[in-house]
Amino acid sequence: MAPLTPTAYDVDRIRWHFPALREGAAHFDGPGGSQVPDAVATAVVETLTSAISNRGGVTAAERRADRVVVEARTAMGDLLAADPNGIVFGRSATELTFQLARTLSKDWGPGDEVVVSRLDHDANVRPWVLAAEASAATVRWADFDPVTGELPPEAVRSVVTDRTRLVAVTAASNLIGTRPDVAAIAEIAHAADALLWVDGVHATAHVLTDLPASGADFWVCSPYKFLGPHLGVLAASPALLETLHPAKLLPSSDAVPERFELGTLPYELLAGTTAAVDFLADLALTDPSHPRRERLVASFAALEEHEDSLLATLEARLRAIPGLTAHSNAQRRTPTLLVTAPGHDPQDLRTALAERGVNAPAGHFYAWECSHHLGLGATGGLRMGLAPYTNADDVDRLATGLEEICGGAR
Ligand SMILES: Cc1ncc(COP(=O)(O)O)c(C=O)c1O
Q1: Is 9 exposed, middle or buried (0-12, 13-18, 19+ CB in 10 A)?
Q2: What residue spans in the chain does CATH classification 3.90.1150.10 cover?
Q3: pLDDT digits (tens, 9 = 90+) for 266-310
């Protein structure tokens, strides 16, 4: 096979595939949900308009449903470097975390401990806090540094004990972008015989996941953050899933991963997820004869370079605006910035930007503990996230807008 030679990241070509961009707004709202390429919409529509029924092997309609599920598990396996037989689909990352928290905590009791972090979205906090409460286990909090935005592995180590059953941590903060060292945290958790649950919802859209290398026992993500439809995905090793027994209907399959999937799967959304992974694999337009995982590796490298270079331009301009405070300061982070400006309510900044055709939302984005730990309470800040379709013109519109609203560059 010819060596894999990625082409330059062609953002114009990529943007052409996003019908939503023709409405004209500059989208910095990707961390809340990305825009969707035409191939994803087509896959959803084609699945809904083809003969399809419940999974089975007799009719073409049954076989189509079966194929859609197998293809989606394989696609997610490629995206996360995970075993397709350990891919579980659910309504959302939140729902999957709640469901697995109930299952994992069945044998927790007084004296057992669970570690959560203040850097996390509430979807990776509250399910564990509530599960701990229900089983009389103790919650221990790992704090990030609000000035640097860092959650060093030491902060986790200091709250892990020999009673820790599970550590729940984010692979990237959806509020300030910090990417903790998940592999180091995994070592700490495993040394204490605890499991590591990783919220990969924000990270999966920006950095290519390698589940074995991350050391995570569980990784959740949501395709609607990486160009796909609205659903949630959990990845774990099938052997680990075999040891767990969630509440399920009596007649439904007891096989792994099916026993974790409640009710009929949304086949059209699974087809859309496969299309999203295929689209990501082709971001750097590499030779389709190469395995999808290889193309994903090349494409994410190109995507990271693209996003990093736009982020550098954006940050340089924003940091020159008098009084503007950037709360995204960690060494390793996603291209997601949270800022506040004295005398400007974040919601007013958002509205003023929207009037200029720039979509950048404001708030705490359910990173409740994180926003409070930053001293921003329930108000939060203005959040700007880059996506595969962001271009230099978008960045210029955003930076110019904020310069005008906040009183110009220094
Ligand atoms: C980091 C992070 N975790 C979890 C979630 C919740 O994801 P879902 O909507 O799939 O439940 C989000 C959504 O914004 C998120 O950004």
Answers
A1: buried
A2: 11-36+292-406
A3: 999 999 999 999 999 999 977 888 999 999 999 999 999 999 999
Distance of CA 93 from the midpoint of ligand 1 (Å)? 6
Q: Kindly give the distance from the C-alpha atom of residue 94 to the centroid of ligand 1, in angstroms, as a whole number.
A: 7
Distance 359 CA to ligand 1 centre (A): 19
The residues of the chain that CATH labels 3.40.640.10 are 45-278
Residue with CA at minimum distance from ligand 1 atom 7: 93
Q: How far is the CA of 222 from the centre of ligand 1 (A)?
A: 7
Q: Which CATH class is domain 45-278?
A: alpha beta
- What atom of ligand 1 comes closest to residue 172's alpha carbon? 1
Amino acid (one-letter) located at 306: H
For a mutational test of ligand 1's pocket, the pick from 95, 121, 338, i.e. the residue with the most ligand atoms closer than 8 A to its C-beta, is 121
Cα of 89 to ligand 1 centre, how many Å?
Answer: 15
State in Å: Cα 187 to ligand 1 middle: 25
Q: Residues with beta carbon inside 6 Å of ligand 1? A: 92-94, 121, 123-124, 170, 174, 199, 201-202, 222, 232
167 bridge partner residues? 115, 196
Give the global pTM.
0.97
The model's pLDDT over 313-369, given as tens digits with 9 standing for 90+, comes to: 999 999 999 999 999 999 999 999 999 998 999 999 999 999 999 999 999 999 999
Q: Of 266, 288, 278, 226, nearest to 74 (Cα)?
A: 278
Give the number of the atom of ligand 1 that is nearest the alpha carbon of residue 32.
14
CATH number of this structure's domain 11-36+292-406: 3.90.1150.10
Nearest ligand 1 atom to the CA of 221 is 10
Place of tokens 């609205």: 230
